Amino acid sequence: MRRLGLVSRFAVLSALVIGVLGFALARIIGTEVTNRNLASARQTAVIVSRVVVQSRLTPDQLTHGLSPTAIAEVNRSLQPLLADGALARIKIWNTDARVVYSDDASINGRRFPSDDGLADALEGETSSEVSDLAGAENTQDRSSDDRLLEVYTPIRLSGDAKPEGAFEIYVPYAPIASGIHHDVLQVWVVLVAGLALLWLALSRIVLGASRRLRTQMQRNEYQTSHDSLTDLLNRPRFDERATIALRDADARGGTAHVAVLLMDVNRFRDVNEVLGHTFGDVVLQELGRRLTDAVGGAPVARLGGDEFAVLLTEVSGAAAACELATRLLGVFREPFTLDSLPVELEASIGVAMSPEHGTDAAALLQRADMARYEAKRAHTGVEMFTVERDGTSRNRLTMLGELRRAIENDELLLYYQPQLDLRTGRVSGFEALLRWDHPARGVITPGDFLPLAEHTGLMRPLTRRVLELAARQSREWRAVGVRLPVSVNLSAANLHDADLPTFVSELLRGEELPADAFTFEITESVIMHDSTRATEVVGALRNLGARISIDDFGTGYSSFAYLQQLSVDEIKVDMSFVLGMVDNADDATIVRTTIALGHNLRLEVVAEGVESSDALAMLREMGCDIVQGYWLSRPLPGREALEWFRRHARPIPKAAGRFSSAQ
Ligand code: C2E
Ligand code: CA
Ligand code: CA
After folding, report:
1. Following DSSP, what letter does each residue of 171-208 receive, concatenated?
2. Which pLDDT score, from 0 to 100, does residue 579 have?
3. Is the pTM of this model over 0.90?
């Protein structure tokens, strides 16, 4: 609307400017055209009288008047000109202001008081004016233009500078006027047409530009409000729509509710990993279409990843909302086909309604999220938010605040678990494992607080704290002669932290540690889930000189080509296989093949979760390089780890019993 106004404002304004310009131009050119026409008419009159009359005059005739023969001759030669109207009248004056010849013979020889035009002509100048003389005599006939162009021009017979007389010539003005009129009209036509074209062209350009601008703005607006993969609303726009719906519902009063349905695919990560990201994207797009069709006009958004949300602006109650949610589960279950192979998905949907569960968009989304969490945990598919659940969420919130403070208050500490190199029988390093020394709850293991940190952006400061602690410990150990690498675990969020390599290199420099003081452990599933980013940060860490280890190997469907491209140094066979291999032949096979595979790729293979000497013996037989586990030692606080190391610094005998107690 405003843009349209702009265009029309431009049109009016430019028309005005062009109009004024055109008018001024027309006036200037019109005057010029008039003057030229007049000058040319005057010139014609002068030339005609000179050629026809002056050639017959002598100085004597000018002084004393023309003889009757001369008059007759002049009359005769003027006759055709007067007859066809080229000339209206003509007089010849001498310097005494006496008429020596006139086509009106009655005034021949008479003297008249000299007027300006005559005086100028006798001074040598030609002048002219449009006179109304004839018109004045004939005022009754106003329709015809009887005006005359009156021209005075000097007569020079002897070539002297001083004229010997003057012509007073009258030419009919009507033909001149019509010539002028014609020329001026032409000027107007050309100008009006030209300027109108100019205006049209300008307006078209501006209109076109404004249209393009408008489409561009619409496109931008669309892009900023929609998810590019699925064309559904994005999160900010969904929040906006929900806020509007809540406000409307509030204004409307009545019993209808606003409900938010939040859903995601169970184990969507597996779909991506096993079937490929391209198929994952196709699934998300198809889900977007299906959901849109299924909810009949209700706003559908993709909030990120495989997370979708539906907004019900007017729903009768919990039953209706849950019924729709249950119907939407079917949308996920309906098979997707990949190479004519049906793939079925399960979803978890959380429902929250206003005003019972919250009165603003953020609260509803958060409650729906908690309900979904419950749906996933309890494998029920759909859950409606309940107030009891809010209690656990409050716990989570308190814990989150506490964890934030814990990072600052030095409540985080590291335990160190030794690793034994079976090839040399020597301790080859320690894995740093995080503990939280909670003021009220005592020492908490990572499983109880890391997931929270991972989902709340705390992983970045937390990992930096871990790195600082590990670096300080490493430096202390090195000061007493223990030069062993420390393995630090990284999580998914750390691979999004492009500044991490710089932080590590500055830390190493600050603590005067060598480049290989750290080994970084990244789980296989994290690395495969986000391989592009992983390549960047992992590559940068490796360039610093750190070793890279793939943790929990065997669970994440790695591509070997990718492992080689990442150039990792070590793989850690997932603990579940090592724990299971003593009793389970399949697990044993997996461990054996993983070791072989690692060696094929020229990687060191670590087995963790080694709890018994039986497991150790099997691993030794399989050619495993390094072992880690309770059989060797539980994770220990720094000082105890050092004492443990001092007790076990000597090579371990090949036929070992229980390692830690035997020594
Ligand atoms: P993980 O990296 O696979 O670490 C090995 C886990 O197995 C540790 O649990 C360790 O205490 C335990 N473990 C070691 N030997 C044995 C054994 O013989 N038998 C059994 N049953 N368990 C054994 P923890 O310390 O509770 O750590 C759990 C997970 O938390 C770690 O798994 C790791 O993924 C994560 N984590 C620990 N510290 C950090 C950290 O500083 N940063 C990050 N990002 N993650 C950490
Ligand atoms: Ca680890
Ligand atoms: Ca592990």
Report:
1. EEHHHHHHHHHHHHHHHHHHHHHHHHHHHHHHHHHHHH
2. 95
3. no
Q: Name beta bridge partners: 604.
A: 570
Q: Measured from the CA of 491, which atom of ligand 1 is nearest?
A: 44
For atom 34 of ligand 1, which residue has the closest CA? 489
Return the pLDDT at 143: 53
State which of 608, 619, 634 you would mutate to test the pocket of ligand 1, scoring each by most atoms of that ligand within 8 A of its C-beta: 608
Q: How far is it, in rounded angstroms, from Cα 94 to Cα 422?
A: 142
| Bridge partner list, 308 | 263, 302
Task: Determine contact, residues 156/54, Cβ cutoff 8 Å.
Answer: no
The tens digit of pLDDT for each residue in 175-229 reads 888 888 998 898 889 989 999 999 999 888 988 998 999 999 988 888 888 888 9
Per-residue exposure over 254-263, b if at least 16 CB sit within 10 Å of its own CB, e if not: eeebbbbbbb
Which residue is it, tokens 């047409």?
193
Q: Which residue from 240, 250, 263 is spatially nearest to 359, judged by alpha carbons?
A: 250
The sign one gets for the Cα dihedral 488, 493, 495, 499 is: negative
Angstrom distances, CA of residue 607 to CA of 326, 430, 588, 595 = 45, 14, 12, 9
CB-based contacts of 570: which residues, under 8 Å, 6+ apart? 519, 547, 548, 549, 550, 603, 604, 605, 606, 626
Burial of 116 (0-12, 13-18, 19+ CB in 10 A): exposed
Give the residue from 151, 149, 148 showing the smallest Cα distance to 127.
151
The Cα angle at residue 145 between residues 144 and 150, in degrees rounded to 5: 150
Whole-angstrom distance, CA of residue 374 vs CA of residue 388: 12
Residue 274 has pLDDT above 70, yes or no: yes
**Which residues crowd ion ligand 2, with CB under 5 Å?**
489, 521, 551
Backbone angles phi, psi at 651, to 5 degrees: -55, 145
